[in-house]
Amino acid sequence: MSVLSRQSAPLALLIGLTLCWPVLALEPLRLGVINERPDRPAYALGLYGPLNAYLDAQLRPLGQRMGDLVIARSLDEMAVRISDGTVDLLLEGVMPTLKLRRKTGRIDVHLLVWRKGQRQYHTVFFARRESSIQRIEQLRGKVVVFESPRSTSAYDVPRAALIEAGLEFAEQPGADTAGAVDGDRVRFLFAGSELNQAYWVHAGRAHAGAFNNGDWERTPEAIKPELRIFHRTRPILRWLFSFAGPVDPALRAQLVEILNGMHQDPEGRAALAAASRIAKFEPLTSADRANLTYWDEALERLEAGAGE
Prior knowledge:
Layout: H1 3-20, E1 31-34, H2 42-59, E2 70-72, H3 75-83, E3 89-92, H4 94-104, E4 108-115, E5 120-121, E6 123-128, E7 143-146, H5 152-164, E8 169-171, E9 186-190, H6 194-203, E10 208-212, H7 213-217, E11 227-232, E12 236-237, E13 239-243, H8 249-261, H9 266-274, E14 278-283, H10 286-303
Parallel strand pairs: 1-2, 1-3, 7-9, 7-10, 8-9
Antiparallel strand pairs: 3-13, 4-13, 4-14, 5-12, 6-10, 6-11
Helix pairs in contact: 2-9, 3-4, 4-10, 5-10
């Protein structure tokens, strides 16, 4: 073999490998999530890291890869990350997703996400069984306990329901009991968790509470018989997958196909289960999109300050 042939062999091998193996895209896709427990930075990574790794493994043979998971501590931080192009994909609830679409103008809602066994859910308002409250309109001048400002079903949805019922509301300053309430406004408090909400109403620290129907089913039997539902809201989709930036159409189609098929793959199911018990992804129907339009209009009323 000539010297030239010996020198050319490694180059030929490199060219051959390049031709038979996809070249990974220079820019990885980045999935963004908002940490439900900002005080525990590793919490979201434990939930969604396996999902991110699964997508990476599925995309690499196609010449694409996933970047590091983008974990925001708040909605505002996620809005910044989306606006600066750091986030390409988003997993979130309906109200946070719609808020981010309004803030950034970059959200394309694409798939419905079954989460914690639910395709959709609704908010229930509840009170002590012996309470005189029978209808949502009777909350005028009462104290209602919500979970936290981060919650869709235990903050945004019930506030929208109060507006729809023609009620004004405001946060109860410096008080955590169902006592001192002035005027006709509904006053609200934050309990920090759905379980606390149930116990606060049971203990008389609030006249009523509001969380989703799944939380009602999980209310401890020790107190549940002494509580009663008096109002249910319109359903809202459980969770959403969205594109948060420009993604090549062919790559979008490939990614959607992977997501829609994850629940049929044992490794995919394991990654979904780790991610807050996601059951599957599925296409949005026309009825789903109509539901999103309703809640987008409700959000507009909330952001306009109606009732506050």
